[in-house]
Design goal:
Strand order of the largest sheet: 1-2-3-4-7-8-9-10
Helix content: 10-25%
Strand content: 25-35%
Oligomer: single chain
Number of domains: 1
Radius of gyration: 20 Å
Order of helices and strands: HEEEEHHEEHEEEE
Structural class: alpha+beta
Length: 167
C-alpha cells in the first residue's frame, strides 16, 4: 500500500450508469434506477425529460411505459405545448383575456399582458413522466412572476390539467 493510499484512503469506484438509447435522446439513470433522465429540444429549447421506471425496486427496471408516453408527447409536441401553456394562461387570466403578472419584482404596478404575449414568454424546461401516465410540466416564470415557476399536472389524456405557481 502506498503512502498516499494510507493518507487519503482508497477511492471507491464510481458506479456505472445505465443508459437507454432512444431514437430521440439517451436516458441515463439518475439515482440508482428509480428514474432516468434525458434532454431533448422542445420548441428549440433544451428540456429535461424525467422517466420513472416501471417497477421500483426491481432487479432489472425498465422504462417502457414512461418511454411510450414520452414518444406520444414528443410526436405531438405542438398540441401538448399549446395545451400546457393555455392552461397556465387560464390560471391567471382575467375576464378581458389579460394575464395578471408580477414582473421581475423590481417594478411597481406591473400591467397585465395579453394572453398570447404571456404564452409566447413560456418555455417548458422539464417534463416528468410517471409509469402510470401522470405528467408534470415545469415552466420557469422569471420576469413574469419574479423567480417562481409554473407547474402543470395532468394525465395522458390531457383533459384534467391543473396549474400551480411554485417558488
Amino acid at each position: 500500500m502506498s503512502i498516499l493510499s494510507k493518507l487519503f484512503g482508497n477511492k471507491k469506484p464510481e458506479r456505472e450508469f445505465k443508459v437507454v438509447h432512444d431514437k430521440y435522446c439517451d436516458f441515463t439513470d439518475t439515482d440508482d434506477v428509480s428514474e432516468y433522465k434525458g434532454t431533448v429540444k422542445w420548441h428549440n429549447y433544451d428540456c429535461d425529460i424525467v422517466l420513472d421506471v416501471d417497477e421500483y425496486p426491481s432487479e432489472n427496471p425498465t422504462i417502457e411505459k414512461a418511454l411510450a408516453v414520452f414518444h406520444m408527447l414528443y410526436e405531438n409536441m405542438e398540441n401538448w405545448d399549446r395545451k400546457v401553456k393555455e392552461c397556465a394562461a387560464a390560471e391567471f387570466m382575467d375576464e378581458n383575456g389579460m394575464v395578471e403578472i408580477w414582473g421581475d419584482g423590481k417594478e411597481d404596478n406591473v400591467p397585465p399582458m395579453p394572453k398570447e404575449g404571456f404564452i409566447n414568454n413560456l418555455d417548458v424546461f422539464e417534463i416528468h413522466i410517471k409509469e402510470n401516465g401522470e405528467l408534470t410540466f415545469r415552466i420557469p416564470a422569471d420576469g413574469l412572476f419574479t423567480d417562481h415557476e409554473l407547474v402543470i399536472e395532468t394525465d395522458i389524456s390531457g383533459e384534467n390539467m391543473t396549474c400551480s405557481l411554485c417558488g
